[in-house]
Amino acid sequence: MNFPKETKAAILVEQKAPLEIRNIQLPQQLEYGHVLVKVHYSGICGSQLGEIDGVKGHDPFLPHLLGHEGSGEVMATGAGVNTVSPGDKVVMHWRKGAGIESQVPKYMWEDKPVNAGFVTTFNEHAVVSENRVTKIPESFPMDIAPLFGCAVTTGLGVINNNAKLKIGESIVVFGAGGVGLNVIQGASMVSGYPIIAVDIFDSRLALAKKFGATHLINSQNKDPEKAIRKLTGKKGADVVVDNTGNTDVINLAYQLTSPDGKTILVGVPRKGDHISIYSLPLHFGKQIIGSHGGETDPAKDIPNYIKLYENNKLKLNDLITDTFELKDINSAIDGIRNGTISGRCLIKMDNNGT
């Protein structure tokens, strides 16, 4: 397999601006722990929209590459790599898995450096750290595989590791995007009840019902607090999950959590935005938990979730509602923002000839 000299990528050049699709030069030598992956598909997560919008403040690494969930084939490996080999099909993920954490790769664009993290997926070829790829079966669908990079692993991890939701416990999920739908699916798998999905788009709520939500609330049309308390009683829900990062929603999520329940924060507020809560209940059993990708261990969890999917225990096909080419990635991002894309959106890479 030829080692490519350049590849096409979507580059974040300026915050709050469209990504630029350009050819960049790949490193011509793989360093210790590096893995060169021919990317097949990439997902788009809310985290990338946050990076574009600058929710964490000034970005000192511009221009840089994006993307943290994808699927691909290993083309070559650097020294020390022993968990994957050339020809292996892999999931690309942002949580640390097995293997070496390498130094970040060095790409070039018009004789200037383009920064990248330990994994990027908005590029047709990517040099990633060994501990950001996990081998999958040769026959596994490459369009389903990216979901294990973030959406599925985070959503199910929230249920397994953060919420530890038990049979019959109630859960409210604010935000029914890719991660939220899998929080809902996970809650259904462990027989939570009621499973209340809250969103501002009816199309996403329709998907939430398909993935196991027992009650749907469009917060544009109904007062979510009144509607939720009608279902859970004055005590509130055992678990409330926020995927939005909106501080008003986080405050409401905390208020709607029972005195001995858990508020789980998946979404990240914009830098400078602060929540305001009455903290006394935290001394008597109430909890606020900041989730970090559902505390997923990719090396252990991805094979387990693949087994569930292959045995029809995990619904993922309906999660993917839209697929775009890399050249149209900005249209895909716009569709996620305005709600015309209801589920997970994939970018299909046009690199079959390389």
TrEMBL record:
Cofactor(s) named in the record: Zn(2+)
MF term (GO), any: zinc ion binding
Database matches in Gene3D superfamilies: Medium-chain alcohol dehydrogenases, catalytic domain, NAD(P)-binding Rossmann-like Domain
Enoyl reductase (ER) domain sequence ranges: 21-347
SUPFAM superfamilies: GroES-like, NAD(P)-binding Rossmann-fold domains
Keyword presence, Metal-binding: yes
Statement: the UniProt record of this protein carries the keyword DNA-binding: no
Family: Belongs to the zinc-containing alcohol dehydrogenase family.
Native source organism of the sequence: Desulfobacter latus
Residue stretches in coiled coil: none
The protein, known as: Zinc-binding dehydrogenase
PANTHER family: D-GULOSIDE 3-DEHYDROGENASE, NAD-DEPENDENT ALCOHOL DEHYDROGENASE
Keyword annotations from UniProtKB, A to Z: Metal-binding, Oxidoreductase, Zinc
